[in-house]
Specification:
The structure is a homotetramer.
Chain A lengths: L4 E7 L3 H4 L1 H6 L4 H12 L2 E7 L9 H5 L3 E5 L9 H12 L3 E5 L6 H7 L6 E13 L13 E11 L9 E8 L4 E10 L2 E6 L12 H14 L38
Parallel strand pairs in A: 1-2, 1-3, 3-4, 4-9
Antiparallel strand pairs in A: 5-6, 5-7, 7-8, 8-9
Chain lengths: ~260, ~260, ~260, ~260
Amino acid sequence: MSNPVRVTIWNEARHEKSNPTVQKIYPHGIHHTISEALTQLGHVHIRTATLDEENHGLSEDILTNTDVLFWWGHCAHGEVNDDTVDMVQRHVLEGMGLVVLHSGHFSKIFRRLLGTNCSLKWREAAEKERLWVIEPSHPICAGLGEYIELPHTEMYGERFDIPTPDELLFISWFAGGEVFRSGCTWRRGHGKIFYFRPGHETYPIYHNPEIQKVLHNAALWAAPSMRKRDSCPNTQPFEALPPPPADIVSAGIQQDASQL
Amino acid sequence: MSNPVRVTIWNEARHEKSNPTVQKIYPHGIHHTISEALTQLGHVHIRTATLDEENHGLSEDILTNTDVLFWWGHCAHGEVNDDTVDMVQRHVLEGMGLVVLHSGHFSKIFRRLLGTNCSLKWREAAEKERLWVIEPSHPICAGLGEYIELPHTEMYGERFDIPTPDELLFISWFAGGEVFRSGCTWRRGHGKIFYFRPGHETYPIYHNPEIQKVLHNAALWAAPSMRKRDSCPNTQPFEALPPPPADIVSAGIQQDASQL
Amino acid sequence: MSNPVRVTIWNEARHEKSNPTVQKIYPHGIHHTISEALTQLGHVHIRTATLDEENHGLSEDILTNTDVLFWWGHCAHGEVNDDTVDMVQRHVLEGMGLVVLHSGHFSKIFRRLLGTNCSLKWREAAEKERLWVIEPSHPICAGLGEYIELPHTEMYGERFDIPTPDELLFISWFAGGEVFRSGCTWRRGHGKIFYFRPGHETYPIYHNPEIQKVLHNAALWAAPSMRKRDSCPNTQPFEALPPPPADIVSAGIQQDASQL
Amino acid sequence: MSNPVRVTIWNEARHEKSNPTVQKIYPHGIHHTISEALTQLGHVHIRTATLDEENHGLSEDILTNTDVLFWWGHCAHGEVNDDTVDMVQRHVLEGMGLVVLHSGHFSKIFRRLLGTNCSLKWREAAEKERLWVIEPSHPICAGLGEYIELPHTEMYGERFDIPTPDELLFISWFAGGEVFRSGCTWRRGHGKIFYFRPGHETYPIYHNPEIQKVLHNAALWAAPSMRKRDSCPNTQPFEALPPPPADIVSAGIQQDASQL
């Protein structure tokens, strides 16, 4: 891997404007804190984008030049344009990596790609979380010990309504008594998706070096080796075919592919 | 399983109105032929619905009383209302089974639930297809031999852009030189999904007793044992939690769940 | 499903002979307690077998007439004959269901079928366990609530060295701080396998009605619809093949299939 | 990836001693041809080992210093020592990659790691095979087109008795009418496994540049980032536990882990 991974960190960035607690923890926004952490860990080239920028800070050109898109959203999922969701989905299917963070489980783009509700249980009680590493030899878990401990987090509990992950990397234990599949991967089209649970806006989760390590690992892991747009071509046979019997006709009716 | 499985067969039913070849093979519509076949195989209660009926022949009440929905569409996918797609998706996530047939691979509902393009290669040359049974002990394959042979079919070829199936039940061989994952299952939410490739409108595929057997098996397999609507509840701890430190605050910010 | 499921419950049955605590909880053996529970829940026909019986109480005839085999072992895995392990494996691959209980994670048969170490972390501190139901609509979870709570159990913790389960049905929370994938399914050959964690011999786990419910559900789920022995046949082509060029020869060398 | 991948190519190497056709195609053995091809493609350091060497040419030291082991066997699977199989299995579970070739589907080590029969159908008729690339964006498929065509091969047909692959990369079409899952990956323990079907000894398959490309890709893909031996430790709680009630005792009975 010779070139740096081109990462775009997308952040809703609303709490940072209005909530003093969030402002104190993330004075320049969650995207800024993640950007600094990934940059320091190296081999990435970062840009950021936020909801209130024009076109949410995204465009065809930006996504074409993005290897991995990070996504953090919480209180304004519904304000993301459907056209933007369509565009991001298309780029993921063509190979762009996607890392969905914390409350991004309810974002339009995550639900679009997974097809499920992505619902879960939650509680904001600043309780202890221990993320157990299930697959220590997976690249996303590189450099971690047996677990990551967070002294104060929001709780997310099962049942998490997701398709069975291709790989289950982290399971969380919460002091209040719940468990959660906190690190999951899926492939959709040619793109790799990683969901990572930690990241509540009122706790300094993204300042934690182990969390930063996971995000950096995820950026390297999700970067595509190629981009490819699938189509639905009519195609000629490889082998000689006998002529069909006289009573078998081809109707020449066209499929409606208008949704592509 | 004491009660019959309540099956609703949805058909676009447009080719049957305009194309003489299709009319000859399916004079009362594809839905009618499938309905008769399943009824004869027993233990089902069938109703049908078509695109041009009011609300496409579907409603909350009908889907609530449908165990398994069959879906055939081809030339008019774009005419299906998005509200109907939302409604069908919700019922699948709550447990309703879904059997998607042939060119339904490009239907809005299939792509909504899988999150991918669902694109493939195709050719209409009336060639031979042999569907190899990969999992003979799966309920959907009950009563079949090693393969099903269709003398004249439309060809669908890989790469089929789908998420890795939970179960791969059939792989097709085509005389022209292609292969295809022709029978695939997925779980989404509490619902079971089966995609089955054969079924082109200008060949008498749905008159084939082995194809009918698979559809009947699929209806029995996809029927839910329960219906359940997931939500995203705030929840109390099971274990006593220590009070958080003074500098840790809970912001009480609400998640945007407007998309649910 | 008209005929009762024929279940054979295999138990190491050593602790029950020597340990007063175990004797008190399971005076007639763990197998006896499970047998009574399943019988009461109905639609099963039970027999039992134990390590110290001749041939461990198993035979070709018994396994041929067993739909689902339960397996509990702990301190004497190494005493199970390899021939018995071969025989059980063959029957599972031919369709017999297998339910592996608790410390059976280290049994020869479980490791044979999964191919991994099946190692884990453990602690015997009579702590609380809460088994969260991850897939409430799976037949094995029928009739359960959101979780099962056990007041005093042995702890098993991740990393559990298993192949990614086909289905993950339960994740356990332990008071001491660990998590565990406590209910997992796999298909191997034509057989269904379910691993279920609870069941330590010094706590009355198998007297718990919810645990009994899971075991009963598992028996019904794992029962095969057919038995089938795979072979490796030389086979004739379906399509006419051109004669190979003169310089291409077939060597007629035989594969070594002696291990089958 | 700075260091070359250390590959050991293991070959049964019996046909090359006795069969003139095989000798002509692989005068120095199949292992030699693969070794030369991988070396030329770069970034690997190769050693070879064969059945008739002392200890089959393998040792603890060699495997410890092997990142990826290739395995080709056919007529003498039963002659591989079980101790060697144990040793190889342990190294795979600790992270060593394994690439199993063609008739190695019936090798002891492949069946040990998968737990199934690995049976299939076969025919030696020098027929045409077309391997369709199912996941073009997977590293093992890098640099390939839509398919690989082999003019003359042995046929392998479904049903292939394997656990559902984690990833299905190639499906073969055969002129005689069969299909086959020709490229499959699994994770077992910390090791990655790739099975690749082509490679019959009487056809010059391993001289084909596209086949060589796949083998080289597989070597790079299967190389581990770490080695790790799992154990089964007794462990202390992270959280304070209440003392168990007086009637709950810990028996202190030891698990039999003699099989590890």
